[in-house]
Amino acid sequence: MLFCIFLFSAITLKCVFGVESVKSVSVTEGESVSLNSDLTEIQRDDEITWKFEDIMIAKIYGKDNKSRFYDEYTDGRFRDRLKLDHQTGSLSITNTRTTDSGVYKVTSKSSGTPLNIFSLTVYAHLPVPVITRDSSQNSSSSSSSSSYCSLLCSVVNVGHVTLSWYKGNSIFSSISVSDLNRSLSLHLECLDDSYSCVVNNPISNQTQHLNNTELCQPCSGTSVAHTNKLNKSYFTVIRLALSALVGVATVAVLVYDIRSRSLQQEQTSLSNSK
Question: Which part of the chain is the Ig-like domain (predicted)?
């Protein structure tokens, strides 16, 4: 019984919509996007209609290839930004805006059913995340450890994004938020590696790298390791310098020895000639 109901529902949906699935399309704000009718040519007695969220926005007539745009139905939302292909009836939207996101449906008069259905998502340009110190967290922890710190990574006026801390090339922590006009933040308490903050949506990302010395001291273990590394580098430089000095001194002794022998030979030669 359930199978019959499901089968009937599936057939009904296919008859009503004329397509098997909704096609997802994503672009960044300001880009152009083309939504295809999948027609190779509009028949002379046919009409192609485009709707946005079931509101008519454009129509093209096959008999004279004339197109009409219904700006009055959408309060001028798409004014001067819609174009129709006179051969296929495909719709192009220029200079896209986040408010253009929604469902678009193209219908043929001859078939009476949708030729295509698109779910368009227009993403806003992502800002570069900002990394700051969390002064309240740092002040409260100062008594327990002088090297302890807490950082905030924030972005504002963005939606449908994921904000993540990366430790090296691995995700350290992350949060996803769909709300618009909301500040996102993450805490990071201990700096023991290279860190970066990344904000991303499905089609783009922005990264801010953390410079440890600008915001807070590294963890105590990292401090010791860093000091040991510096000490090793320091002693390496000293050894190289000493080796260079020894080399110079050796060359000087050899030069002096050679000159002394040459001078003795000259004096011996002069004595014999007399």
Answer: 129-211
